[in-house]
Amino acid sequence: MDWALDGGRPSLDLVNTYRDRKTGGLEMLREPADLVAWLAATGHPGARADESALTEARALRDAISGCVDAALTGSAPAPGDLERLNRWAARRRPAALQLTPGLTLTQVPPPDVAEAELAEIAHDAVRLLGGDERGQLRVCASPACGVRFVDRSNAGKRQWCSMRKCGNREKVRLYRARLKDS
Question: For the chain, which has fewer Cβ within 10 Å, the N-terminal or C-terminal residue?
Fold first, then answer.
């Protein structure tokens, strides 16, 4: 699957699992296996998911998206979005560590990898929306895309989610328009 991992933050990468927002939308998390595949693609293998986990992941994604949209417009987020985001962030727990017989540290995987990662993602969203990078939130300028990302460019004027994707397509479109007009 072609995941949009151009957000610059895990929470935005989750938001971007709902694609093409400007043209009606495309759900990338259609079944539990999609959530498992997305978690693996973002560096969190070993997760299991059922319909309930998928429903929770989508609801968290939508709550983060609502809060991001509020930040982009300078408005207050919906109370339900804020409550869901804060509730998920409160579930975050530090990784459990144990000593091996050789006295080296090993990290014990959580019992529910998907739930633990969603809590981490919620925590990331809270830090993003409550921190300095909130002012760097952007939406891809492509007329079809809608991917959310953090603009870390030196000038702070990044327009495209990715130059490999939307930026390149726009350059090709402009080039062809210039050729046509010549």
Answer: C
Q: Which domains does the chain have, with CATH numbers?
A: 10-181 (1.10.3300.10)
Q: Each residue of 114-132: pLDDT tens digit?
A: 999 999 999 999 999 999 9
How far is Cα 3 from Cα 153, in angstroms, rounded to an integer?
22
Q: What does 112-138 look like in DSSP terms, one character per residue?
A: -HHHHHHHHHHHHHHHHHHSGGGGGEE
Cβ proximity of 68 and 129 under 8 Å: yes
What predicted TM-score, i.e. pTM, was given to this entire model?
0.88
Give CA separation, 32 vs 1, 9, 55, 114, in Å. 14, 22, 9, 11
